[in-house]
Amino acid sequence: MTTIPNRSRSVAGRVAIVTGAASGMGRATAMLLAKEGARVAVTDLDIAGCQTVAAACGDGARAYALDVSDADAIAQVVAQVAADFGGIDILVNNAGISSFCALEDDDYEEAWQRALAVMLTAQQRMVRAALPHLRKSDAARIVNVASTEGLGATPGDTPYVAAKSGVVGLTRGLAVDLGPEAITVNCIYPGPIRTAMTDAVPDEHKVIYAKRRTALKRYGDPEEVAHVTLSLVLPAASYITGAVIPVDGGLMARNA
Q1: Superfamily covering domain 15-192+222-248
Q2: Closest by alpha carbon to 150, among 135, 172, 133, 132?
Q3: What Cα–Cα distance (Å) separates residue 185 from each residue in 94, 164, 192?
């Protein structure tokens, strides 16, 4: 009988960086990883929010101010995290912004550049900065956060759509490039989730949209996204790479 390899389903002791971790899906991911025993670098532009999340995560977490649109800041923070924790095993590229902007708007070019800088360029910079440390891990994991907007567009949202579509392509390219080193790179694309980005949508409109568009007839919670991320960063998730996984309540499964 063939022996089944003993692959761990624990992240205890692993070092994780989570971007955009002061709120929403990033906060839920940081807190879940910490609950499961990981040591977590909680990063965000909102340092006060980071400190609150890090405190909630416990002694194994630290807060770092990070503007992911700043290449120098990325290099400095990633190096500091590696020095503080003694390495990096997990990178979760979660930071994002809202970028609705019509093509005719005077500030469209600015919105376009900002969307790509924060949600696409920053992801490859984070990977490249963390890579020397990930290469020293025996179970290096990268998870990039995209969106259903990367697979189907909402009117007036082309900067966001372009950035999130790019995340899907980046993930697949990185998976191919880093696969020979056993570094897995996967992407999740959340659908309608209750976060700060969707707070502006009235609850009654959320209900109407979810019942019309999703199979589960509701918005998701950030923790439901975090659990999928956790599954992808387990040492046991060693043969999943280049995957683009929906966490959308069945939104993309529906034709109408």
Answers
A1: NAD(P)-binding Rossmann-like Domain (3.40.50.720)
A2: 172
A3: 14, 16, 23
Residue 25 tokens, joined: 């899906």
**Distances from the Cα of 250 to the Cαs of 127, 192, 198, 219, 254, in angstroms?**
30, 10, 18, 11, 7
Q: Render pLDDT for 65-77 as a digit per residue (tens, 0 to 9).
A: 999 999 999 999 9
Domain spans in the chain, listed from the N-terminal domain onward? 15-192+222-248
- C-alpha–C-alpha distance, residues 96 and 115, integer Å: 8
Give residue-wise pLDDT tens across range 217-237: 999 999 999 999 999 999 999
To the question of pTM greater than 0.85 for the whole model, the response is yes
Amino acid, res. 203: D
Tell which residue, 147, 187, 142, has the closest CA to residue 164.
147
Closest CA to 134 of 187, 96, 78: 78
**Residues designated as active site:** 160
* CA–CA distances in Å: residue 9 to residues 6, 231, 233: 9, 8, 9
Tokens 């502006």 found at: 200
